[in-house]
Amino acid sequence: MSEIKIAETPQGLEGEGYFATKLSDVIGLARANSIWPLPFATSCCGIEFMGTMSSNYDMARFGMERLSFSPRQADLLMVMGTISKKLGPILRNVYEQMAEPKWVIAVGACACSGGIFDSYSVLQGIDKVIPVDVYVPGCPPRPEQIIDGVMRIQDLVKDESLRRRYTQEYKTLLESYNID
How far apart are CA 107 and CA 149, in angstroms? Predict the structure, then answer.
């Protein structure tokens, strides 16, 4: 029999009938539990993602029951499968259309490193065209691995400073990809 684990409350002032904390902690918690993913699936990893969204694994537990097929309404780009060099500029265009803050997960060996396709036509990892926050390896990765990747994104989102996107470090990262 497993024990019920209660999440730790954010640091703040507690008393009977009230709780006060920092606004950035509340916003981080809200963002982390209301991520709208944009699935960019091209091959077998997309099928595994479909299994992850099914009732057996239930991604709705993580606040992701609403898939967004419009980059302007999404804040998590999930790239799954083989990305050809011709598809690279399209992927970059989708990334640039997303509003800040935005995060990226590379799902599967092909999105992470080109996978078994070491050829002239396959992009050897999507990090050649867009910055990646979390890599989920596997060929194809199991739904549990995809869920773990999403949980890593939630940790990143929860702890991210509200002003991080305006730091010089972030601007330098985007400049290295020639993104304005």
Answer: 8
Cis peptide before 140 (omega within 30 of 0): yes
Q: Tell me how many domains the chain contains.
A: 1
Say if 163 falls within a structural domain.
no
Q: Domain for residue 28, yes or no?
A: yes
Q: What is the pLDDT of residue 1?
A: 60
Q: Tokens 């990893």 label which residue? A: 45
User: Model confidence over 142-177: pLDDT tens digits?
Assistant: 888 989 999 999 999 888 887 777 888 888 888 888
Q: What is the 3-state secondary structure (H, E, C) of 122-142?
A: ECCCHHHCCCCCEEECCCCCC
- Tell me if 4 is assigned to some domain: no
Range of the domain at 113: 12-158
Is the Cβ–Cβ distance between 107 and 49 less than 8 Å?
yes
- Look up tokens 């992850």; give the residue: 52
